[in-house]
Design brief:
Helix content is about 25%, strand content about 45%. It is α+β, with helices and mostly antiparallel strands.
Length: about 180
């Protein structure tokens, strides 16, 4: 029932589903189960990549976040810039794509909380639109392994953050390449 309601609201808003690749990753994120769903949709002549991150711990805890950004005006298959961004993140921590933009306060906070910060990467693929947005990937290390947090930020708005294991990024790349074929 909720799915039908959501579909009718999306259709009324003019959002068209181009491709639904389904769940492309199932794994763990700390003590939580993580599943990633991937889809492409269009709105007002723009094509958006949507990464839906669902964290759960049994039936008691479910948290779903959707990070999406416009990547093309010409066609859904124009994924080269997106794939390049994802490859930079997938190559972490040993590549030159990651930078450290933290100030002294950020470094102090990370040291006090025990967070092992490995770097950030700002995606080049989001298109400039009437409400510009940025997508940043922050790579950290923890006892559970390497993690990446994707953050979609709009100017004068809040950000949406989706956290996942770094191992999920190559599966996203593979799913997009397989869909584009």
């Amino acid at each position: 029932m909720v799915g039908k309601l959501l579909s009718s609201v999306r259709a009324a808003a003019g959002i068209a589903d181009i491709a639904d690749m389904g769940v492309v990753f199932n794994g763990t994120y700390g003590y939580n189960d993580c599943s990633l769903r991937l889809r492409i949709e269009s709105l007002n002549g723009l094509f958006f990549l949507c990464i839906e991150d669902r964290l759960s711990r049994g039936a008691a805890f479910v948290n779903t976040k959707v990070v999406k950004w416009p990547y093309s005006q010409t066609g859904a298959g124009e994924l080269d810039a997106v794939l390049q961004d994802l490859r930079c993140v997938a190559g972490a921590p040993g590549n030159a794509c990651l930078t450290d933009r933290r100030g002294a306060v950020g470094r102090l906070f990370d040291k006090m909380t025990g967070r092992k910060y490995l770097g950030e990467y700002t995606f080049a693929s989001p298109l400039n639109e009437d409400r510009p947005r940025t997508v940043d990937a922050t790579v950290t290390a923890s006892k559970a392994g390497l993690m990446v947090t994707l953050a979609e930020c709009r100017k004068s708005s809040t950000s949406i953050q989706a956290s996942m294991p770094l191992d999920a990024i190559p599966t996203i790349i593979n799913a997009l390449q397989a869909w584009r074929q």
